[in-house]
What does this fold into?
Amino acid sequence: MEIESQATIRENVETSSAIATGQYLYCIIHEPKTDIEWDLKGMNGATITSIHYRDLVVITSTTPMTRYRLSRENTMTHEVVIEKIMSRGYTVLPIRFGTIAKNKEVVVKKFLESRYWELEGLIRKLEGKQEVGIRIFCDEKHLFDEVLKNNPQIAKLRDEIAKRPPNETHSDRIKIGQMVEEALKVQKNNHQDTFLKAFTPLAVEHRLNQALGDKMLLNSAFLIDTSCEPDFTKRVDGLEKELGKDFQIKYVGTTPPFNFVNIVVHLEDE
Amino acid sequence: MFLLGILFDLLTFPVSYPLKGLKWISEKIQRQVDQEMFSPEKVEHELLELQMMHEIGDISDEEFSKKETELLDRLDELLLAKGVLQEVEEEQGVIESSEVTKQSVDVTQQKTEGEAPIPTSQ
It folds into this structure.
């Protein structure tokens, strides 16, 4: 189940010297009540408010019409607001980082009205589900030892090179470098497949992200039924014991579905 | 001049052809390198890698801040060069020119495509 929503909002540019603030959008939830105090702070420390249309709510805060840089501080602020809303029991549809609307009326008229049923449907699909993330790292030396163990020809060539003077082994050293690189890639892919197979049976959907850095073997997010979380945690613990000290598992339970829903609001020229 | 050019090419063919070929290849490689080195997506990926290194304790807070600022500055330059960012028009009365998108309209969206930011709790 790949859930992706795109909304297009367009309106003529109004040239007015008064245009200085807008509404920063965080996420969409289902809430029929309209008199809720959120008691949260968002981007630039602004108070969190909300925009209501029927029973849909967009969580927002007032912001200058600015572009927020993709810094950790900014992305954290954006995500923490969504996480705090989720922690109050709501199913959240995260809106992409950096989305700013000119005012509340535009959000209702150009976004919520036209996309109401789509957004309602997405919330229903995600009810009772949550995202968990798993990253698995491995000590580089351990990986290299595995490569030598599984590829005797590389170990043999390495021993041969070691016996000869360095000026005679230039091309062999390049060759062994390429062999190791290729073998490492295979080794990492094998590990990734094994790890994924351990978790995908427990998930409704998974998303494989690109590994970051040389040590990372798996960078994946799983959408699971909330009722399955204890089983998932047990599986993580089991794998951690099985893998031993050379591997490190970073498990993040219960986050908003950042990897499965990313409401994108495109701005197109008239 | 055109005929002379052809004649020159024909007479020097064994020498010039490989050279021209090499030049063409090197230009193509350079273009590819430029696209990869100077794409916003590449910088965003580097930012994610940096955040990950910071999370797992491979780099200090100071090192992280310094490198993050460098990468964010580079990202701004690239986005500006690609026309995603634009100098602010005076009458809009908005804050810092380099920080503002050209979309001073109803809904603006950071136009950087790429991976979702690392969830904060990871």
